[in-house]
């Protein structure tokens, strides 16, 4: 699927999916490259609480697939195909190309 005659590379496809998969992108909660990001700050019982998206750079492909198909309290369900999840995984686990 990702040969020399491809319109975009697997990295570029994964990056595109990461930034805008379907609706809100992974980038908003998991950071520019999966390192995790602040989602919101709020007060609970008088204490400041920070809600953060987890670092997903070192998760396995199996863990990523399981996480993307199950329902979460906060994270949307994206209904990605196996090849889309594999492209996301490739993007997260490949040294960054020139952007």
Automatic annotation (TrEMBL):
Domain Cytochrome c residues, every copy: 12-94
InterPro entries linked to this entry: Cyt_c-like_dom (IPR009056), Cyt_c-like_dom_sf (IPR036909)
Keywords, comma-separated and alphabetical: Heme, Iron, Metal-binding
Superkingdom assignment: Bacteria
Protein name: Cytochrome c domain-containing protein
Organism of derivation: Hydrogenimonas cancrithermarum
């Amino acid at each position: 699927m990702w040969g020399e005659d491809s319109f975009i590379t697997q990295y570029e496809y994964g990056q595109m999916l990461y930034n805008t998969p379907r609706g809100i992108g992974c980038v908003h909660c998991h950071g520019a490259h999966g390192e995790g990001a602040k989602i919101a700050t709020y007060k609970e019982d008088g204490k400041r609480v920070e809600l953060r998206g987890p670092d997903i750079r070192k998760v396995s492909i199996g863990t990523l697939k399981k996480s993307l198909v199950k329902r979460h309290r906060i994270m949307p369900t994206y209904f990605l195909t196996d090849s889309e999840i594999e492209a996301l995984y490739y993007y997260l686990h490949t040294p960054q190309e020139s952007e």
